[in-house]
Write a structure and sequence with these properties.
Radius of gyration of chain B: 29 Å
Largest interface: A-B, 87 and 72 residues
Number of strands of chain B: 17
Largest sheet of chain B: 7 strands, parallel
Oligomer: heterodimer
Distance between the termini of chain A: 41 Å
Helix content of chain B: 40-55%
Number of helices of chain B: 23
Largest sheet of chain A: 7 strands, mixed
Helix content of chain A: 40-55%
Strand content of chain A: 25-35%
Number of helices of chain A: 10
Radius of gyration of chain A: 27 Å
């Protein structure tokens, strides 16, 4: 699902906010921002500078950027200073951020670097706050999986699964549900976490077998077809190299054999159907328990 | 980082094995044990949303198009990319005629594989002169972080552009052969036609998953060249060597079982042509503008011609000094300024007591008599009439300077463009021409960077004698993206050698009106012994009369037409195959 210009803008603004960047100017079409150290490390590609800051303890000077989302919806920018000493330091770096741009990709990478493993607690609701009793919280393991169905082409699916560490129940679109709730990294007052019945390994195994079972119900025509293509290709090179291998010359024979092996290996690499399941991000979510006590 | 994975299989025959990547799990365990560090919830959400936006949800829908901000590919380019991805499975020869955007097609295919995560390590081999152009196009048009190979460590980048000559040499060669490339792209692949060359053997040894070979001329001389190219991509596609010879070849240039050959070829090769109809080229109009030189100019022309002939005879046909004489003869058709400098340089090279000095001074005096440049005045008249942007090409730097001054004196804004300018200056001139000046005066058509789609008038102030250079000039203006019909004006001075050359290029070779897709092939064959340019030099220097020249031009034209015909006859079997039956 491609992001619209509006969504790109929202994405960037939320990132800048979450990383405590300082907004200097903002319009519906652009934002001028002085990056926070965290954002600067992720976005400006200056490992040597940051290595220097870390070694010497110098106060870092972060960079200023103008990110443009829609040229038609922004006021004119002040002109650059005239070329000369200080030009590089004082000019404003302007960059268009659109879907598919290198810069947005960097924001994506930055979000990945800073958003992979979480441990969160649902904020108390009104009822909970007014209660005199400690509220039981249940730990869930949320795992966002990516499934790649690959041969010479590829298709992907995302599955956001959550498993209760108490009951072992598994829920789909778990992450989407979490995003609608208010969460905090700290354990709220007057809350206790129920004892987990599952070990982490067991939870993982259950999630894996759940997703595997699901995949096995899919139509696997794509893989069957890829296998047919693969067999055809193998037959083609077999016929070609079998002719060449009839040579008496050992040296030639050896090099042909090597070539033949390479070609076969390339075909496997290219066509062999495979399903790969990886995890994009995951974490623990402690929610008001709905489990039977 | 080690990939901690487990492969499981179900009891019945699995059509595809499932592999779990469990790197996440050990990391999670570690953070759990240490109780942190834990990441921010907003970034966690953003990461999830970013992944969702990038998920490739279908096998066949082209994903890369939504990510190209600086490029709108043309329909035939998208069609080609789609066909390579879905039918040819990423191994193909892209054989479009020159100027239809093979690079764009290759870029689309590459981008698609990158976006889908099916390619990461990519090697692009091109002629040395095109390395930077490829790098720039991939970066600017496709947002692909391609790097030009410079040092040994550059090979470690994901997408590297290098010249074939570098790649096949030590120490690079071994490094590349140890690698595996998700994708290999080779530009100007017709250079791989010969199996015995080191280039060919090197490419055979390289390990690659997807592979694109780009060439405008998949067959130059011999059907076996095509066979060799296809063997690089898909060994056995046309059977073994002897099967191929038995099934498809009558004579090395003459195929048999054409339908079958075509259908086999269409599985590995795509060739778009200008004549296909779905490709939007505008029309081209050519006008020759004959001029009569003033008496003073004609006197200079005759003087120079006589001087050149005398010198040539004195030198007994010595070819090495021929070039400056020919130049002189050609310059006199362009401007007196150009002749003047060459004369002065010639004079400097002569011993002091040489009688030549006197003759040169005689010519210089003739130059002094000339008060006006008939061609320049005509050019100005044309420009004022068309009242539209126009590019003027000349072969000579001095003529360029003269024209700049001449136009300035007439309040006509013109900017120069020449080979010696650096990139920044070239870009600047191009901007000035686009936004401020009506006229650009260029001495160079080749090379990268001149895209003149916004201009559709062109004046050939003088003509190169090499047809390829003429075609390059035309190609700058008459290219994909040009929205208007293109008008070409050739200035030609009556009663001079220029008239004959124009006659040859225009009437005999039909260079201006036709698109000669395979001009380079025709010329290569025609020029087995001597280049066309050289033959013209000799003809000019040795001819006794105008009639002589005319007959000579006639015979050169005839031999061009004959070769063009045999090349065209070879074409049918690399045309599109009949459409496959609907599914």
């Amino acid at each position: 699902m491609v992001m619209s210009a509006k969504q790109v803008q929202q994405f960037v603004l939320r990132y800048l906010d979450a990383t405590n960047c300082h907004l200097i100017e903002k319009s519906p079409g652009h934002v001028i921002v002085k990056l926070s150290p965290q954002a600067d490390r992720e976005l400006t590609n200056r490992p040597y500078y940051w290595g220097f800051v870390d070694r010497t303890g110098t106060e870092p000077e972060t960079m200023k950027f103008c990110f443009i989302f829609d040229k038609d919806k922004m006021p004119p920018l002040p002109p650059d200073p005239p070329p000369g000493p200080g030009y590089i330091a004082h000019r404003l770096l302007k960059e268009e951020v659109t879907y598919g741009s290198r810069r947005l990709d960097q924001f994506f990478q930055a979000a990945k670097a800073g958003g992979s493993y979480v441990n969160l607690f649902e904020l108390p609701n009104a009822e909970q706050k007014s209660s005199n009793f400690s509220t039981p919280y249940e730990q869930w393991l949320g795992v966002n999986m990516k499934i790649e169905f690959a041969c010479d082409m590829k298709r992907e699916e995302i599955h956001a699964l959550g498993i209760s560490m108490v009951t072992g129940d598994i829920i789909e679109q778990f992450c989407d549900n979490m995003l609608t709730r208010k969460m905090s990294p700290r354990l709220p007052a007057n809350v206790h976490v129920l004892r987990s019945a599952l070990t982490l390994t067991k939870a993982r195994n259950q999630l894996e077998s759940y997703i595997e079972k699901k995949i096995r119900t899919y139509d696997d025509e794509w893989a069957v077809e890829a296998k047919i293509r693969f067999d055809d290709e193998i037959a083609r090179i077999d016929s070609y190299y079998e002719g060449l291998l009839k040579t008496e010359d050992d040296e030639i024979k050896k090099s042909v054999e090597e070539q033949y092996a390479n070609r076969k290996q390339e075909l496997t690499w290219q066509y062999e159907p495979r399903i790969r399941i990886s995890v994009m991000n995951c974490g623990f979510f402690h929610l008001r328990s709905v489990a039977k006590q | 980082m080690s990939i901690n994975s487990a492969t499981t299989s179900r009891s019945k025959q699995p059509s595809a094995p499932i592999e779990f990547d469990r790197t996440w799990f050990s990391e999670l365990e570690e953070r759990t044990a240490k109780n942190g560090p834990w990441d921010d919830f907003t970034l966690f959400a953003l990461n999830y949303e970013a992944e969702q936006s990038q998920v490739v949800s279908t096998f066949d829908e082209l994903q890369c198009l939504t990510q190209l901000n600086n490029l709108s590919p043309l329909p035939h380019q998208i069609e080609t990319a789609t066909k390579v991805l879905h039918e040819m499975r990423g191994r193909a020869i892209l054989a479009d005629e020159v100027g239809l955007g093979k690079t764009i097609e290759a870029g689309l295919i590459l981008k698609e594989y990158l976006v889908r995560g099916l390619a990461r390590k990519v090697l692009i081999l091109v002629p040395a002169s095109l390395v930077l152009q490829w790098v720039r196009e991939l970066n600017q048009k496709f947002g692909i972080a391609a790097v030009a190979q410079k040092k040994e460590y550059t090979w470690h980048y994901d997408v590297v552009v290098a010249s074939m000559d570098t790649a096949k040499r030590d120490p690079h060669k071994d490094l590349l052969l140890q690698n595996e490339y998700d994708m290999l792209i080779i530009d100007e692949a017709h250079k791989l036609k010969n199996k015995k060359t080191t280039n060919y053997q090197f490419i055979t040894q390289l390990r690659k998953k997807y592979c694109l070979l780009l060439t405008a001329t998949p067959i130059q001389n011999d059907l076996s060249e095509l066979y060799n190219l296809i063997t690089l991509l898909k060994p056995g596609q046309l059977g073994g060597v002897s099967d191929f010879a038995a099934n498809f070849i009558v004579d090395k240039r003459l195929p048999k079982n054409e339908d079958q050959l075509q259908s086999e070829l269409s599985k590995v090769m795509i060739r778009n042509r200008r004549s296909d109809g779905n490709i939007g080229f505008t029309k081209r109009f050519v006008k020759n503008v004959p001029l009569t030189l003033s008496d003073e100019e004609m006197a200079l022309y005759n003087g120079v011609t006589a001087f050149v002939k005398d010198r040539y005879n004195e030198l007994n046909g010595d070819m090495s000094s021929m070039l400056s004489l020919v130049t002189l003869q050609r310059e006199v058709c362009s401007s007196r300024d150009a002749v003047f400098l060459t004369l002065i340089n010639l004079s400097k090279k002569m011993p002091e007591d040489s009688p030549i000095h006197a003759k040169i001074w005689e010519l210089v005096n003739m130059i002094r008599q000339i008060k006006a440049n008939t061609k320049a005045e005509k050019a100005l008249e044309l420009i004022e009439e068309m009242n539209d942007k126009v590019i003027i090409f000349t072969e000579y730097r001095q003529t360029q300077d003269y024209l700049l001054n001449f136009f300035r004196s007439k309040n006509m804004v013109a900017v120069p463009y020449r080979g010696g300018m650096n990139r920044g200056k070239k870009d600047w001139m191009m901007d000035l021409f686009r936004n401020r000046a009506q006229v650009m005066i260029a001495t160079e058509a080749g090379g990268e960077g001149i895209n003149l789609q916004f201009c559709h008038n062109m004046i050939n102030f003088d003509l190169p004698w090499n047809p390829m250079r003429v075609e390059q000039r035309i190609g700058r203006v008459h290219r994909l993206g040009q929205m208007n019909d293109v008008k070409i004006y050739n200035l030609s001075t009556s009663g001079t050698i220029e008239e004959h050359i124009l006659n040859l290029l225009h009437e005999k070779i039909n260079l201006f009106e036709l698109v000669i897709g395979q001009l380079d092939v025709i010329l290569e064959r025609m020029e087995k012994q001597d280049s066309l340019e050289k033959r013209l030099y000799k003809m000019m220097l040795e001819s006794k009369s105008d009639e002589d020249i005319r007959a000579n031009v006639e015979s050169i034209g005839k031999s061009f037409q004959d070769i063009a015909k045999t090349v065209a006859d070879n074409e049918p079997f690399i045309q599109d195959a009949p459409q496959e039956e609907a599914q």
